[in-house]
Amino acid sequence: MRHRGNRALALGLACGLLAVTTSAASPASAASSTSATMPAATQQEPVDAGHAVGHAGSAAVMLRLLPGSVPETSILPDMAQLPSDDRPFDAGYGLATTQLNTNAALPFERSIAQATPEGSLFGDVETPTGGFLVQTAAPDNTEPATEQLSAPDSPADALVNIGDTTATVHARWSKDDGPCLDTASRATTETDRLAAGNAIPTLPDIDVTDLPLPDDARAVRFRPDGGLGTLGGLLSGEEQRKNGKGSLVRVPGGFDTRSEISVVDAPGSDDKAVRSTSTVRTESIELLPGSPLGMTATVRRPASLEVSATGDPKKSEVSFDVPIITVKRGGTKLFTLNARNATKDIPIGVPKPALYQRTKAKLASVPIVAGAAQTAKGTRLALSGPARRAVTDLFVLRLSVGGLNQTSDKTDTPITGTEFAASARLLDIQLLPTRALADALASKKSDVAGLPYEVPSTLAQYSLGEQTAGALVAPGGVECGTIVADAPAGDAVPSDVNTPSTAATSVPLLWAGSIAVLIGVALLTVPFRASRREAPSPVPRE
Fold first, then answer.
1. d(CA 94, CA 519)
2. pLDDT tens figures, 269-312
3. % of the chain beyond a pLDDT of 90
4. How far is CA 261 from each of CA 29, 106, 113, 218, 317, rounded to the nearest angstrom?
5. Which among 150, 184, 188 has a CA at the least distance from the CA of 169?
6. How confident is the model at residue 16 (pLDDT cuts 50, 70, 90)?
7. Where are the domains of the chain?
8. Is 285:261 a contact under the CB 8 Å cutoff?
9. 316: closest CA among 180, 186, 478, 181?
10. Other CB atoms within 10 A of residue 505 CB
11. Cis bond before residue 414 (omega within 30° of 0)
12. Facing residues of 148 across strands?
């Protein structure tokens, strides 16, 4: 239960986030801005009405760098400045987040929809995202707002490249029925392209030929152009190409993310329930694009996460459609990821001397990926069983779908009831070290600069289609109808949106936390994952 406070904080921050606007004349309408602030301070207690809270977040991709994971000898040493000594660096792209809090003290806090192409947390430094789109209610917005946004410059640009984003937001609040108007909050993003992972900053960038492997673990004639930081030349390195070639992963058609909160009829009852939904869609995902050894993952069923709360724990539920993804190389099907087969490991290694004796074709000095080598002519050569065994695997590219984590906790904040929450993902891509690599990097017998080095358990992780959803309803269901409350006068956001309020300035955690909510899933997702999924350890390949 130690993470329940984090979730409550996240929900409170979400509902207290200031809606940024460029027009003081219509402050509850949609607007884009480059800064955010908290609402004006108020001494009044939250309005006890409506009895419903919900949140939903969707991200095209999430990137995280753990503290101390980037060595000084990294190919991207500046990345080491992003995490603090004890806090990770979080970055999200293609973010769509929605919040509903019928008990909010200020009317414009009751329904919030927001979308942004990028948002980041830099260790202990609260750094607002670039352009984003926000709409708040009350008062009601009869029409959604749509805007074309571009991701701002970010230190993470060396790892993630994203195209233009079309953002749409719609926050609703009925003057007569309050939150009971079907969809109370909706946010979507559409990104036209995405590429990530052109280098591995968590490794010392030493030549593969300098790696202290046993004599028979690597052929002398294998001399790749790139070091460990580019997986022996499979990645482009410091050069981030706009077409995505040379990256670990590319999504040529981009992502569509959608988050929404609706008030619906509770099953088998006259009461109303809150339903929070997160959906992520894309058609194909390319691994090692531009390489003859690359693969294409076709998404046959998108990821959809739904959390419903009725006020009765027995009738509340979490549902998730596990994605179905088929991975091919060329015209050959390699495997399918689904609910029954959720994880697949793809080995990446270097040839032993015996490999050259077992193949007639002249091979290029490029690592072996999933049992295939690249020839000197730039074609792909599938290796036979004996030839596959003549490879020393250094990395494992682990693909996973689903990863549903869910929880239900009793809480008194912001209302009394049972909060249902969940997180999931479309596809998780992890680069893990094998025991052979971990042992070589930890060797004290080598005089190579940067060694010995204790390799982290996960070298790189990109969560594609990250999703969160949660709902909390008081017993008796959602309260509809006109809400009579002694709320502060006026429905609008405070006019001075560029200056933090007294309350925000006096509570640094709250001010920094608003940015965590702005990037959507960082604060809401991490508690579920941290408590239920251990970081993978180096796994030796047989």
1. 9
2. 888 999 999 999 999 999 999 999 999 999 999 899 999 999 99
3. 55
4. 19, 19, 10, 55, 15
5. 188
6. very low
7. 4-532
8. no
9. 478
10. 14
11. yes
12. 166
Could you tell me which of 93, 88, 82, 99 has the C-alpha nearest to residue 132? 93
User: Which range, of 55-59, 151-155, 178-182, 517-521, averages the lowest pLDDT?
Assistant: 517-521
Helix (H, G, I), strand (E, B) or coil at 336: strand
Q: Residue 49's pLDDT is what?
A: 56
Q: How far apart are CA 495 and CA 507, in angstroms?
A: 21
Other beta carbons within 10 angstroms of residue 533's beta carbon come to 12
Distance CA(206)–CA(223), nearest Å, equals: 12
Stated as kind and residue range, the H or E segment containing 4 is helix 4-16
Burial of 176 (0-12, 13-18, 19+ CB in 10 A): exposed
Report the alpha-carbon distance of residue 500 to residue 502 in Å, rounded. Answer: 7
Write out the H or E segment, with its range, that includes residue 421.
strand 417-433
Half-sphere exposure of 536 (CA within 13 A, CB side): 23
Other CB atoms within a 10 A radius of the CB of residue 482 amount to 11
- pLDDT tens for residues 157-203? 889 988 889 999 999 999 888 899 889 999 999 998 899 999 999 99
Three-class secondary structure assignment of 492-537: CCCCCCCCCCHHHHHCHHHHHHHHHHHCCCHHHHHHHHHHHCCCCC
Contact by Cβ (8 Å): 234, 264: no
Do residues 60 and 464 make contact, with C-beta atoms less than 8 angstroms apart?
A: yes
